[in-house]
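WARN no homologs supplied; continuing
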Amino acid sequence: MSTLERLMIDHCHNMMLLVEPASLQIVMANQVAAQTLGYAREALQTMSITDIESSLQDVFYWEEVRGGQCCSIENQEGFYQCSDASMLAVTKNIQLVEDQGKQLLLVQAKVMENERLVEDALENTLSQLRATLESTGNGILVIDWQGKIVSMNRLLSKLWHIPESMLLEQKDAEILALMTSQVVDADACQARLQAVLSTEDSEEIIRLRDGRFFECKSRPQYLGERIVGRVFGFDDITAAKLVEEALRESRDKLEERVRERTADLEEANEGLEATKVYQEELIKKLKEAQNQLLQSEKMAAIGQLAAGVAHEINNPVGFVNSNLGSLKIYANKLLTVLNAYEGNDPAEIAEARKKADLDFLREDLPSLITESQDGLSRVTKIVQDLKDFSHVDQVDRQSADLNAAMESTLNVVWNELKYKAEVIRELGKIPPVDCVPAQINQVFMNLLVNAAQAIQQQGKIFVRSGIENEHVWFEVEDTGSGMSLEVQQRIFEPFFTTKPVGKGTGLGLSISYDIIVKKHHGRLEVKSEPGKGTCFRLSLPLVMSNN
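OK structure emitted
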């Protein structure tokens, strides 16, 4: 055998053995056979074929060959014994050949294990692919480049109602015709199914004659760079379409209702505008009425204060006036004595001195002048307290000594208090407070007058002050008749009063609450118990908010 022939045989992928029929001896083996079986080539050429093929089937075959019955074998499975006594599964072919008139048997064998592994892997891959195809949520249809159906899943046949018999007979043309016949636009569907070699991806909605909707997506199937078919995916979107149409119908109805509602609202707005103008007029009138009521309350308070102040001023002015009358008589007597001295008549001078009673005048006149000065000082003090109370020269917020303001208010309303109660002062040391003093004085006056009016005969009024958590507080407590819980809950309502008709407007505490809480951002609280008295407590921040 030439070198080239030997090279060709050694590079064959199969094992090759040349066997002499009469002796069954291996006369030649290639390199693949030696390597696969684990023998040296020279050792193989000294062995019998039955040393390798030792199964009963193989032994019968080779005995027949020895007896002269040579026949060919194709793709027969068997086992080869290796040098390590292991068995190797093979597929073999045996052919009868001649060499120079001599018959020989050519045995070609290939190992089956690799092929089985490849076949098993291929079968496993195909099984997974089929399972994936069946488990997808879409109906899948694969058409090759010749227009034949290569594959489809069960869901596709279910979606398109394809009979089982048609599937078993694999009638591709009838299946495709059945699908297109169910579509409203059959021509467009047929054109899409036939456009197998198109390079473009497609996505469209197909409407069926039975009212269903399918979403159809397709894309080309490539083998390398060539298009070999097309994959179609069908998804039943009927429910989504029905929802979409229902939403569209609902939206149209909603838009119509919105238009109707808008028209109603526009009409209502016109009515509201008219109502707004009317309400603004009413609010204006209410504000005017409120201002008039507030002014009436202030005028009533002023009238009440004026009567008390007039009484307080009348006492010192009365005895000053009386003293002035006495002083006039004393002055006339002194002038008579002075005229007698000017006449230089001793008898007349003595008579004038006796009638004038100069010793009495010398004793009473200084006392008369001192009493008049005290009375005028009292009047001056009352006028100053009135000025401090009203703060006629201070209309804006400022830092004020509220203890002094309370003292001034007590002096102004003293005539209301002195016949009803003993005022007990328990004023603590407090810093100046940022406020509108005239408004705070009005609150003090309302609380003090209410306290006096709550006392039927004689009682006590406690006036206290202090500082706590950056707030100055005042308490006005009386030992009067007290209030029930129902009255306490309404005490700050405008026009609410427990006094008889003509004794109050019911605005005093309402105004006080407005001043303390709304204008000065403080607190005004009340604690009362019927038969035991009432305590009003107000609290003001040291620094008033700018809001």
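The first helix runs from residue 3 to 10.
OK
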